[in-house]
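Message: Study each token:
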Amino acid sequence: MTFETVQADASALGGPALFPTMATMRAMRRLKPDAVPDETLDRLIQAAVWGPSGGNMQCYEYVVVTDREVMARLAPLWKRCVDAYLATTGRHAPDGMDDAAYGRMVAAIEYQRDHFADTPALVIPCYRFPEPRFDEEGLRVYAEALGPAGLEHMTDTRTRFQALAEGSCVYPGVQNLLLAARALGLAANITIWHLMLEREWKEALGIPADTHTFAAVPVGWPQGNFGPVRRRPVADVVHRNHW
């Protein structure tokens, strides 16, 4: 597996300013402690709300943490989650990433862990999927359309299907939020490490038990500079018409 530096020039990419925005949207983990104005954070949430939502249900909610005392209470939870990640999945560099580059990434993760209490803002996207509504005729058509094998598959993958259905309603908005942050000169990165201790995070933030959380997105003004991302070449990831 190889990585390439993505060209950030709009004309070279053949598109509008959105393209260089995406091409320089690194995960920025070293944040200044300076506050981000509420009006700016509202613009990020507005961008998230503009994202598509499955069935147009729009059952998302966003917890935005800016209070230093609340952030300080979350910092130990963040540390436990990051330490658990670095001891397991994060212990080794991904295929195609050299050790030096991975070492720099880990150093940034550790910096964010050690300075989490100074994070200016943290966004927690949430979703409460509504109870499905079925009737006898609809279930009959459903069974006929899928057939016995399809029904068996749906039964076996119900949990995964539900998780993906919820995620598909949330993550397009999260991506919009990340794009908006980059466009406004803010650093942000998406993480799901908090899910290892989701119950404790929800208790700390008063999130209802029947509401799922999907990410923890630290936001602030970057200490460093934005630069081009490194990704796998398009030719290595495209399968045209069949695998």
Q: What stands out?
A: The chain has a mean pLDDT of 89. Residues 65 and 122 are 5 Å apart (CA to CA).
